[in-house]
Amino acid sequence: MKKPTRVNHPPPVDLPPDNRAVVSPIYQTVKFEFDTLAETERFFRGERPGFFYTRASNPTTRQLELLLAELQGREECLVTSSGVGAISQTLLALTKQGDHILCFVETYNPTRYLIRRLLGRFGVTHTMLSIEDLAGAERALAAHPTRLVIFESPTNPVTKIADITALTRLAKAAGALTVMDNTFAGFHQHGEYDVDVFVHSLTKYASGAGDVMGGAVIGRSDLIRNLRNDFGALGGMLDPHAAFLILRGLKTYFVRYQAQSASAMKIAELLAAHPAVARVHYPGLPTHPQHALARAQMRDFGTIVSFDMKAGADAGGKFADALKLFALAASLGSTESLVVAPQMMGGRDLTADQHKLSGVTEGTVRLSIGLEDIDDLVEDVKQALEVAQ
Description:
This protein is α/β, with parallel strands linked by helices.
């Protein structure tokens, strides 16, 4: 073999069957091959396992899918290139012209955009209520044959808690599928509820380092199997190297989530006692309107603490600028603490009444608590509150 050929066909290195890598390798390849055309055709007919093209599946991304499905207590998973990709591809794959979606004001802004603008252009209608309006949800499901009920809990940014049992019961009675954005709660929570499809942003707690993006769609094998072809055609699948980084991040998922939740509780208690703060939105606080529901549904209350400054947006902006340890940045779930000022909040697509239902005020600030020492975070929040006053 001449050298120009050899560099394109390097010598293979195969591990013996009893000699395994402790950390699985990255299958950073687009293509896979079988020894013969006959075996390739057997694969296409579903008569043998294997891989052919990474857009459809890849050993590294497949390992991540299997792990996430097990963590969420379901059979199957698809991973995507971003959290919004997981939401958009799920919505596109599960709906058609003439379908109706029940959604809620307290929903991630891109999700609202996808339902109201993108799907709306394709003839999918929707009803949007408050996540607290169960009576309205029941009326809407009775009035419209509904394909999907999509919700999140805790909600972004003011951590309202959805009554998952009630919503899934109403949806099932109406013949609708439930899609739950479970990003804030994480993979170890809510799996015991009768949710058809969970979506997650892997960019957040799964990665934990804020250096890679990804999304996941988790559910029963029959549902996910029906989605796989559509997802492959839409093309927003996760890259193997990104899957490897997320697998690495998941090794510390539980210790991170629990430690950050414990720190979030202390920050929430500090804010609740401060005279410059009108209200704290953290489901772990007994003063949270749905604290009892959160305790019944959740093992950990999460790492997001939102609160309303009494003096409004100007004070909220001063508070954010005065923080020294919190990055003024979007996202959440990473090891560094983050702050979103009132001026950065979305919701411009909402009417005045809908905005009021959302619970977001002119002075709402959202904190994502990281892994810094809690004493340092407390001191930073204290001094920023003093500046804001």
